[in-house]
Design goal:
By secondary structure, the protein is α/β, with parallel strands linked by helices. α2 runs antiparallel to α7. The radius of gyration is 21 Å and the shape is globular. The chain has a ten-stranded mixed β-sheet, covered by helices on one side. A nine-stranded mixed β-sheet has the order 3-4-6-8-10-12-14-16-18. A hairpin with a 2-residue loop joins β1 and β2. Helices cover about 25% and strands about 35% of the residues. It is built from eleven helices and 19 strands.
């Protein structure tokens, strides 16, 4: 048996052992979807470099490990432990999940507008929530990628957000996913479902953090639906342990005149893979995708995005930047598809990469597939190093070489950071970036 087949068999075994105690096990529609998903995962198998979508990303480090399901309360996590990762303002409503399970003790509830629900997915699954059944698995299809299928089979918890039509949630909702020291050699399967009604508006902050070094696997999926006139903004900050693995999917579906914004900040993990897909299925829909990825040492970060323009007069903007040092590797594959009926589409996609080491590598692949003839679509990608003339200029003004270098790196990244309208999130990213730069204290002065 090959290593890949052994991995598939191992995950199937985990499902078989746990299916009776997973959330929603006694609910018929939940059990059916889990069973169908694990069967689909077994059919698909693990992605391999021969698969075009995975040609630059090897999963051998994951395949070589026999990840187990998390043990309940494997490690005690305190409020002090998570304090560096919480937002006092502007968020008030916070849901915290530790090693795959909701922690009421660490979470913080606040008054939400009437009719708004933001609670653990496990509770909705156990209750067999019929409204949830109309959304879970309808946007992130287990027939798609193997990791979505595996997540559907093993999903343990996450956030289920529902905002009724016409309601605005003014303050962001913070969802914090924590991997403790007890997460070593565990697979954490989170599923988030974000549903807005017509004309509704909400902002969600997704944070993934590792409190200790450890070879754990976070496999997370977020599904988002924004119907007519709705607005959803999702800010994802990934700060996993640098020995951990992070596989993520974001699937969004949009109605007419809706807006979806996804800001993807990838700072941690030994291997990080993000699949971000959006379907613009009605006129006037708009999506904005922004991303910043940092790599150092032997980190590997892979961002795959797909924007489907399915109807006329839809718009999209995408801007990703990567900074790679050491022997790290980055991958950006951004695809924009304009269907024949999607006339008067407007789309702009850009990817910029900064290599700080001769051993760092990036593989950008921006793609346009246009089947309509009345469109305005642009795309581009660049790979470069620090500008020697700019370095020289700063040094002639009295700045040391290392300080000048850090200032230029910060300026390159800050173009993405300054586009974030939430001040606390912007400050958090600036702080994280500063910590990774030498002589950052000189810049702050």
């Amino acid at each position: 048996m090959t290593e890949i087949n052994e991995t598939v068999g191992h995950f199937k075994g985990l499902y078989t052992e746990a299916e009776d105690r997973l959330p929603g096990a006694s609910v018929a529609w939940v059990a059916r979807r889990r069973q169908a998903a694990i069967n689909r995962f077994a059919e698909q198998g693990m992605p391999a470099p021969r698969d075009e979508e995975w040609k630059y990303t090897s999963l051998r480090p994951i395949e070589k490990r026999a990840f187990a399901l998390p043990e309940p309360d494997a490690h005690e996590v305190s409020l002090t432990d998570i304090d560096p990762y919480v937002f006092d303002e502007p968020t008030a409503h916070r849901l915290v999940f530790v090693d795959g399970a909701y922690s009421e003790r660490l979470s913080q509830a606040s008054a939400l507008p009437q009719g708004v629900t933001a609670h653990p997915l496990s509770q909705a699954l156990d209750a067999g929530d019929e409204a949830l059944s109309h959304h879970l698995g309808h946007y992130a299809d287990p027939e798609g990628t193997p990791f979505v299928a595996l997540n559907t089979a093993l999903m343990s918890d996450g956030v289920y957000l529902h905002v009724p039509a016409g309601v605005t949630v003014a303050t962001p909702i913070h969802v914090l996913f924590v991997a403790s020291a007890g997460a070593e050699e565990r697979v954490l399967s989170y599923r988030n479902v974000l549903v807005a009604g017509e004309g509704a508006s909400a902002t969600v902050l997704e944070s993934y953090v590792g409190l200790a070094e450890g070879a754990y696997l976070t496999n997370t999926v977020t599904e988002a639906v924004a119907p007519e006139g709705a607005r959803l903004a999702v800010y994802k900050l990934q700060e996993e342990a640098t020995s951990g693995y992070h596989i993520a999917a974001f699937e969004a579906y949009q109605g007419g005149a809706s807006e979806v914004y996804h800001h993807n900040m990838s700072l941690g993990a030994r291997l990080a893979r993000n699949d971000i897909n959006d379907a613009l299925d009605h006129e006037g829909a708009h999506v904005g995708l922004n991303g910043l990825y940092l790599g150092d040492g032997r980190q590997h970060v892979d961002n795959h995005t797909r924007i489907d323009h399915l109807q006329p007069r839809t718009t999209s903007q995408e801007y990703y930047k990567g900074i790679l040092d050491g022997r790290s590797r980055g991958v950006f594959n951004g695809k924009v598809v304009v269907q024949p009926q999607a006339q008067e589409t407007s789309s702009d996609q850009q990817n910029r990469n900064l290599l700080l080491s001769r051993n760092a590598e990036v593989d950008p692949k921006p793609e346009l597939e246009i089947f309509a003839d009345d469109v305005s679509c642009t795309h581009g990608a660049t790979i470069g190093q620090l500008d020697e003339d700019a370095l020289f200029f700063l040094q002639t003004r009295g700045m040391a070489y290392a300080e000048a270098r850090s200032l230029l790196i910060f300026g390159f990244a800050n173009e993405i950071i300054e586009g974030i309208p939430i001040e606390q999130v912007r400050y958090r990213l600036e702080d994280r970036l500063m910590r990774r730069l030498p002589h950052a204290e000189a810049m702050e002065e």
